[in-house]
Amino acid sequence: MANPDKWKIENNSNSSSAGNELNGLLVKKTSSGYELYGVLGKYANTTPPSLPSFNNVSWDGQSWNIVFTSLPVGVNGAGTWTLLDSATDAEPTGAEDGDFTAQASGGHDDEDAEAASSANA
Fold it and tell me: Quick one: which of 4, 21, 74, 90 has the most CB atoms within 10 Å?
């Protein structure tokens, strides 16, 4: 059964290919906010219209800011990503940012989440 409160990130084709490193990451709505799996970050605000943003997420040897602009229940959502300069944790001056699609019901298993490491954002 598909879960309407789960989405999978896929970099948009018109964005820099650097964002392809985020492909397959999952976001799940929980009773206390949102979680980015494998759990890479937690966003603890459930008051609408707040959507999650995860700052300084370490993934695949790089640091990212990931911001969700929409997460409609049971429907694809969207957001933006920024690749940070790992030396300064600042946004780079180049074209290292883009958009992603958050595909509804990413098929994430809760058991996988328990085995994953986490960092607060």
Answer: 21
